[in-house]
Amino acid sequence: xxxxxxxxxxxxxxxxxxxxxERCLRSIEQNANGITLQVIVVDNAxxxxxxAMLAREFPHIVVLENSERLGFGAxxxxxxxxxxxxxxxxxxxxxxxxxxCLEMLVAFMDAxxxxxxxxxxxxxxDGSLQRTANRFPxxxxxxxxxxxxNRLLPNNPVLxxxxxxxxxxxxxxxxxxxxxxxxxxxxEAMAQIGLxxxxxxxxxxxxxxxxxxxxxxxxxxxxxxxxxxxxxGQSTATRAPKKFHDIYWNSFLYYYQKHFxxxxxxxxxxxxQLRMFVRSLAARSKIKNRKSKIxxxx
Length: 298
Known about the structure:
Radius of gyration: 21 Å
Shape: globular
Number of strands: 9
Helix content: 40-55%
CATH class of the domain at 6-133 and 169-237: Alpha Beta
Order of helices and strands: EHEHEHEEHEHHHEEHHEHH
Structural class: alpha/beta
Mean pLDDT: 93
């Protein structure tokens, strides 16, 4: 027998992050505020005590266990396919739901039939703002990113345009894309565009999802009054930085290949490889100079 529909299905993916997951789950349960929830945790082949914690502290929650490590989208898709909610939210396990957040998001979607998806205001643990919600990346933005100009020139107009730099995030508004740390989607909209693209292992999949919604005529909103703490980077903090740097760029380039075509993909890949080559030459030169100084001192 099919499970009865609920207001909101919450999809959480956990990879060896049991302590943060427990905090997140408790915040969800404490702040349901009259809406009906279905919470599904996908355990991504964890080797810590996450599964034991879930069985002990949350025996009523649906847990789907991956036998091998899957990507962000592939893991969430297991829960999304199982969800019965009128709305479904993908949520990072390093988030903490604040009072009335989920209630506000559901009420906002109920009141805005044009909304395919929405996201809350994300804040840091100290209460400061995380500047989430961006415009869709342009080809010029891709060039700046590939050449690391957005890092070297953080006030450049291309990056400022992408970030809605003049907007303080204190007002609710339609945006191009919201953060995948907390992204709520309408069931009917998801039925039209499909699940997350699993070719993104992690990173850029939420931008792709929002772009697919946009192409089908749905709007995406940032809901300023709904707030969630996002601790940020907890799921990847203990893993190799180079590995996740490479994963980020694979996802970034795939996004451009998918939505801008092969020429854009090859152009950005070549620019990125050029930057990495120059970077490696600079690193070798630095090491050589250091060795030379040491030899001269002996």
